[in-house]
Amino acid sequence: MQSRTDIGFGKKIRLAWLDSALEHAASGKSFEQVREELAKEIAVENPGPEAIRKIQAALKRVWFTPPDYCQSLHDAAIRLFRQNHSQNSRFLLNWGMATAAYPFVGTVAEALGRLLKLQKEARRTDVERRIHEQHGDRDFVSRITRYDVSSFLDWGVIAEAQTNGVYLLGRQVRPGNVEQQAWLVEAVLISRGKTQMALSELRHHPVLFPVVMESLHSSTLRSNPRLKVVRQNLSEECVVLSQPNGAD
Questions:
Q1: In the chain, alpha helices (H)
Q2: Is 229 in the same domain as 185?
Q3: What DSSP designation does 75 have?
Q4: Checking DSSP bridges between strand 122-123 and strand 158-160, what pairing results, if any?
Q5: Which pTM does this prediction carry?
Q6: Would you say residue 246 lies in a domain?
Q7: Domain range for 39
Q8: Of 75, 95, 115, which residue is a domain's last?
Q9: How far apart are CA 63 and CA 78, in angstroms?
Q10: Is 10 within a domain?
Q11: CA-based diameter of the chain, in Å?
Q12: What's the CA angle centered on 9, arms 85 and 106, to 5 degrees?
């Protein structure tokens, strides 16, 4: 049974493979129907059967059989993709679903985002130290963290600096409409295991470091029936996930 505590990517996941999985899922195909096609695409760079299996498992969890706690998010993502399948839209949907279906991936993204905001760069050793503080100083935690960071490099959201093991901010994408913004807010709440969060925090949340969300306002969230905005005081609004999908 899939759960929020399942660890992150077991291998580097290329954005092109996520794109392919998203396209197949949006066309109504099951994982079993496209298993061999995905395997051939993956085998171009990863011919080993165990590597193919691990990569397929990640693609399956993100786009074909997501955990129960983010099934509604997945279904909404498929609808959004059918409305807009531009390159930016694909990236935003892949980012949101990857960090929600694998909260550990979201934790790595959050660590990178915080460091990039504070220092304009992120050292691999600092990222790993922050992850170890939450998940323990174990070899497999370091290994999975490296796979996640390697995936982010492929996706272009971070870039390697001249100094080895140092990363800089890469591409940033603006959501194309309010529906995408509201969907990303839901993705952050699910990824971070929250049923509510201050709107101001969501607008600049480090897990969304590749996304520009400065125009996020309470009115934006009306397009998402699973979200509602409540005012906590005169100056702060809070976003509540009304159908928490298993969030803590």
A1: 15-26, 31-43, 49-63, 71-83, 87-101, 103-119, 124-135, 139-155, 178-191, 199-203
A2: yes
A3: H
A4: unpaired
A5: 0.94
A6: no
A7: 15-95
A8: 95
A9: 9
A10: no
A11: 58
A12: 70
Q: Hey, what's the torsion of the CAs at 44, 19, 116, 113, to 10 degrees?
A: -120
How does pLDDT run along the chain (248 residues), one tens digit per residue? Answer: 455 656 789 999 999 999 999 999 999 999 999 999 999 999 999 999 999 999 999 999 999 999 999 999 999 999 999 999 999 999 999 999 999 999 999 999 999 999 999 999 999 999 999 999 999 888 899 999 999 999 999 999 999 999 999 999 999 999 999 999 999 999 999 999 999 999 999 999 999 999 999 889 999 999 999 999 999 887 889 999 986 554 44
DSSP-derived pairing of the beta strands 196-198 and 122-123: unpaired
Summarised one tens digit per residue, pLDDT across range 154-186 is: 999 999 999 999 999 999 999 999 999 999 999
Q: End of a domain among 64, 95, 126?
A: 95
On whether both 142 and 83 belong to a single domain, the answer is: no
Residue 137 DSSP symbol: S
Q: Is residue 2 part of a domain?
A: no
Instruction: State how many domains the chain has.
Output: 3
